[in-house]
Amino acid sequence: MTASGSEDAPIAYRIRGESATRKLAGRLAELLCPGDVVLLVGELGTGKTCFVQGIAEGLGVRERVLSPTFTLLREYTGRLPLYHLDAYRLEGPGDLSDLGLEEYLEGQGVVVVEWADRVRDFFAGDCLEVSLCFDEGGEARRVSLRFRGDSWRVRLPRLRGEKG
Asked: Of these four, 56, 62, 83, 124, which has the most CB atoms within 10 Å of its CB?
């Protein structure tokens, strides 16, 4: 796993395999705080659910984490509650209001959204967007972490191993 990026630029990683994806996500989970929103963007098969599984492991979730494609939202208990949302079947940001997502955003947990590009405009405050894409003919992945808001500006350098 290799990382690059300057202070205000996205942090970019090149990773190989599910274990590396989970490891990166687990390191990110150590930085998560109540009320955080993590938006996952990427094509089918790029590792979004695997990334959520790594976050769950990092939060101490003991349950098996599955994609909530048909249930839309799954809740897990760990160091912080994890609310795993799959927006694939949603038509747009308005559908999240219908689900009552505001209640989860105001709670003590972390909201992680797969297929977030479909509902990105719903999230106006601080958030972290994680983009996953294929690299090297599908053998590796490029993972880019881009933040919005001051809370992530302070925390993300710790992911790179810098003082924050």
From this structure: 56
Considering only CA atoms, which of 38, 29, 129, 127 is closest in space to residue 79? 29
Q: Residue 41 is encoded by which pair of tokens?
A: 């963007």
pLDDT at 1: 54
pLDDT in tens, 138-154: 778 999 999 888 888 88
- 126 and 151 Cβ atoms separated by less than 8 Å: yes
Query: Global pTM?
Result: 0.88
163 lies in some domain? no
When divided into structural domains, the chain yields a total of 1
Is the predicted pLDDT of residue 98 greater than 90, yes or no?
Answer: no
> 92: domain range?
17-158
